[in-house]
């Protein structure tokens, strides 16, 4: 049966402490490692061949579980976000092919293993500049499962043309922090910078996670309505109110901008993708993304992904 339209929207907050796993308030984490998958299921980049960067794992409220009641959480990965590696054509061609036969090149074996063991609920996405993203829907047992370490591809000559992504050595949080902050001589020097305030400290080296808090959103008239750039007849799309139009003024929707959230009013940087009412909107710090200063949206119903720079 199709999922009913949501009656609630939720703001997502990045907390400055590790998630308390297994509790009622365990809604997942940003950075860190994915749970419940095996090493052979970890998405490998079809561009540079390295393991894709883990970004966030989110346990969704029931109204946003678009793939059925059994799938309660989503874990997301991305190509390198702050470097521009060289494409490895042999890997790109092999992962893009339909063949399930073992490759003649032994160096392609890890990619054959990945193709053979790809998680049945993995969704692959590509943006307008050909960067790759992947998301895996998880069951409750998988969400509660052990954290997965990234595949060990050290020494594979196919990867020699690019340096390893920094997150593999430093962890996603520290790699993101170092990219945005750069060099510094004292904490006082960086204490007022946005990315220091986001993390609340210099992230330790390693695959450390930051918990996600979920807060029900009040007063948003667009809950349950598919977002669009303009008001259409209520019989067509349910009366979505774009945040900067005259009709939105009584609701003071601008106060909701720049938040990570599920459903409700969308604040795209440039255009409004024609997504369903069950969507996720995230800012760059929600997992260490590079959206050119902008934000992104993921339609949980169709698994379409879109972002635009600020």
Task: Lay out the secondary structure.
Layout: E1 9-14, E2 28-31, E3 53-59, E4 71-78, H1 89-96, H2 109-117, E5 122-126, E6 132-139, H3 140-143, H4 166-170, H5 172-181, H6 187-190, H7 194-199, E7 209-217, H8 234-237, E8 260-262, E9 279-283, E10 295-299, E11 305-308
Antiparallel strand pairs: 1-7, 1-8, 2-3, 2-7, 3-4, 4-6, 5-6, 8-9, 9-10, 10-11
Q: What are the salient characteristics of this protein?
A:
11-stranded antiparallel sheet, 11 strands, 310 residues, globular, alpha+beta
Q: Describe it for me?
A:
- The chain is of the alpha+beta class.
- The protein has eight helices and eleven strands.
- An eleven-stranded antiparallel β-sheet has the order 5-6-4-3-2-7-1-8-9-10-11.
- The longest helix has 10 residues, at 172-181.
- The model has no long low-confidence stretch (mean pLDDT 93).
Structural class: alpha+beta
- For the largest sheet, list the strands in their spatial order: 5-6-4-3-2-7-1-8-9-10-11
Range of helix content: 10-25%
Q: State the distance separating the first and last CA atoms.
A: 38 Å
Radius of gyration computed on alpha carbons: 20 Å
Shape: globular
Biggest sheet details: 11 strands, antiparallel
Low-confidence stretches: none
Query: What is the β-strand count?
Result: 11
Indicate the mean pLDDT.
Answer: 93
């Amino acid at each position: 049966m199709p999922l009913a339209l949501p009656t609630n929207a939720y703001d997502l907050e990045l907390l400055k402490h590790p998630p308390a796993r297994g509790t009622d308030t365990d809604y997942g984490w940003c950075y860190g490692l994915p749970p419940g998958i095996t090493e052979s299921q970890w998405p490998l980049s079809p561009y540079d061949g390295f393991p894709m960067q883990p970004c966030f794992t989110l346990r969704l409220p029931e109204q946003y579980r678009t793939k059925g009641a059994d799938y309660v959480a989503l874990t997301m990965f991305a190509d390198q976000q702050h470097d521009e590696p060289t494409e490895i054509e042999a890997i790109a061609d092999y992962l893009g092919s339909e063949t399930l036969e073992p490759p003649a090149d032994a160096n392609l074996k890890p990619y054959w293993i990945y193709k053979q063991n790809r998680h049945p609920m993995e969704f692959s996405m590509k943006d307008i500049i050909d960067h790759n993203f992947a998301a895996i829907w998880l069951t409750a047992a998988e969400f509660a499962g052990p954290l997965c370490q990234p595949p060990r591809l050290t020494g594979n000559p196919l990867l020699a043309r690019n340096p390893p992504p920094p997150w593999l050595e430093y962890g996603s949080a520290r790699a993101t922090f170092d990219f945005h902050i750069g060099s510094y001589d004292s904490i006082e020097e960086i204490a007022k910078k946005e990315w220091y305030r986001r993390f609340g400290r210099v992230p330790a080296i390693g695959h450390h996670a930051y918990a996600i808090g979920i807060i029900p959103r009040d007063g948003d008239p667009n809950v349950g309505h598919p977002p669009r750039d303009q008001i259409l007849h209520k019989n067509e799309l349910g009366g979505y109110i774009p945040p900067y139009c005259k009709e939105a003024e009584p609701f003071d929707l601008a106060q909701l901008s720049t938040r990570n959230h599920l459903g409700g009013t969308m604040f795209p940087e440039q255009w409004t993708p024609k997504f369903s009412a069950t969507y996720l909107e995230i800012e760059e710090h929600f997992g260490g993304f590079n959206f050119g200063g902008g934000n992104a949206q993921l339609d949980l119903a169709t698994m379409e992904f879109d972002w635009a720079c600020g």
